[in-house]
């Protein structure tokens, strides 16, 4: 995950990269924000930037810096295969007294990759088919945290731990974690991630630095649905037929919006694709709102684990091109071809 993939948080990101560049990284931080506003994306991109071997600095454009996305460290973090990157998250009981996040790590990694870290705790629980009320962060998780943080890092760099939905930590688990927060080990970073209205225990809150996201990206997106749905639906229909003349007219229409609208539109498309994927993979409801029930029922089946990554990449590249003031007609045309190809791979 690179910072360029996150929408609407440029100011916060510029602040974070400056602190990392200055070497003023605080060992325990609390990222507060809705996943759909990018809270978990910020955590992911933050660690990728922290470990990047060739950070990139820009003289123009909205972002001042980003990870390179290509060095071995970036690749391992982007694919969640870095051996020193650990996750703890609310996990459901499975009948065993030793159950912890470790038992669901494969599912969690897949969930992050598939949703590009925009999935919520509700989405994750539905994917696991469990009741949200029984999911929690347990004392077995704290024991796991203490274990992994006491190991020597494999790669000789940072030891990284992300605690997703830390508010789900029971008192016992929190008390065990406190010692780790009070006596930080060198080259160790712990990121706690929680939604706006969720509270962590005061003893923990007083020992972490808070990073707050710009709220409302996600609410805006909901409002935009009504405005953008017709445009998206006619575009999707054309992607199946690929009649050049019609597609070209559609691309003209999309690129005639102003740049901010184009970005919002792409963000909206990416949200719809995420919903379609969650419907086909986990049966979650998805509303495209085409007014044509047949189309609304058919389209989500086109987005599967075989193409969600291709679709995400194509959308992210288009968004990046438009943020960098590229010729938007070209960006939308290229996106159309890539989307059309990806949809055929379902
Ligand atoms: Zn890198």
Could you explain the architecture of this structure?
The protein has helices at residues 10-21, 39-51, 72-78, 105-115, 121-127, 139-150, 171-182, 202-205, 217-241, 244-255, 259-282, 293-298, 308-323, 328-344, and strands spanning 28-32, 56-57, 65-66, 85-88, 159-164, 188-194, 209-212. The strands form 2 sheets. It has a 5-stranded parallel beta sheet, sandwiched between helices. It contains 14 helices and 7 strands. With 346 residues, the chain is an alpha/beta fold. The protein folds into 2 domains: 3-212, Rossmann fold, CATH 3.40.50.300; 217-344, Zinc Finger, Delta Prime, domain 3, CATH 1.20.272. Strand 5, helix 7 (171-182) and strand 6 (188-194) form a beta-alpha-beta unit. The model has no long low-confidence stretch (mean pLDDT 90). Residues 52-54, 67-68, 70-71, 73-74 line the site of zinc ion (ZN).
* Portion of residues within helices: 40-55%
Count all strands and give the number: 7
Poorly predicted spans:
none
The total count of helices amounts to: 14
Q: How would you characterize the largest beta sheet?
A: 5 strands, parallel
Q: What is the class of the largest domain in the CATH system? A: Alpha Beta
Separation of the first and last Cα atoms: 23 Å
Strand-and-helix sequence, N→C? HEHEEHEHHHEHEHEHHHHHH
The domain count comes to: 2
Choose one word for the global shape: globular
Instruction: Give the cofactors and ligands.
Output: zinc ion
**CATH topology heading of the largest domain:** Rossmann fold
């Amino acid at each position: 995950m690179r910072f360029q993939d996150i929408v609407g948080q440029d100011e916060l990101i510029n602040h974070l990269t400056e602190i990392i560049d200055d070497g003023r990284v605080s060992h325990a931080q609390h990222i507060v924000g809705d996943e759909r506003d990018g809270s978990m994306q910020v955590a992911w991109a933050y660690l990728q930037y922290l470990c990047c071997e060739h950070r990139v600095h820009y003289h123009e454009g909205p972002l001042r810096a980003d990870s390179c996305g290509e060095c071995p460290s970036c690749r391992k973090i982007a694919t969640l295969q870095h051996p020193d990157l650990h996750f703890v998250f609310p996990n459901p009981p499975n009948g065993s007294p030793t159950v912890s996040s470790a038992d669901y790590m494969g599912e969690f990694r897949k969930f992050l990759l598939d949703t590009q870290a925009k999935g919520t705790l509700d989405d994750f629980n539905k994917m696991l088919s469990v009741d949200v009320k029984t999911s929690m962060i347990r004392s077995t998780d704290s024991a796991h945290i203490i274990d992994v943080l006491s190991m020597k890092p494999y790669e000789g760099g940072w030891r990284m731990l992300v605690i997703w939905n830390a508010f789900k930590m029971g008192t016992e688990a929190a008390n065990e974690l406190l010692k780790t927060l009070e006596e930080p080990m060198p080259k160790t970073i712990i990121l706690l991630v929680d939604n706006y209205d969720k509270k962590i225990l005061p003893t923990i809150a007083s020992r972490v630095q808070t990073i707050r996201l710009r709220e409302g990206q996600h609410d805006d997106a909901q409002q935009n649905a009504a405005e953008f749905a017709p445009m998206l639906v006619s575009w999707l229909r054309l992607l199946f037929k690929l009649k050049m003349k019609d597609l070209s007219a559609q691309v003209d229409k999309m690129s005639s919006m102003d740049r901010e609208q184009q970005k919002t539109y792409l963000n909206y498309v990416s949200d719809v694709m995420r919903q379609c994927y969650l419907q086909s993979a986990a049966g979650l409801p998805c509303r495209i709102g085409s007014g044509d029930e047949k189309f609304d029922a058919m389209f989500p089946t086109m987005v599967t684990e075989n193409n969600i990554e291709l679709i995400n990449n194509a959308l992210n590249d288009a968004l990046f091109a438009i943020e960098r003031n590229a010729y938007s007609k070209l960006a939308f045309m290229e996106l159309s071809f890539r989307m059309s190809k990806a949809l055929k791979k379902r």
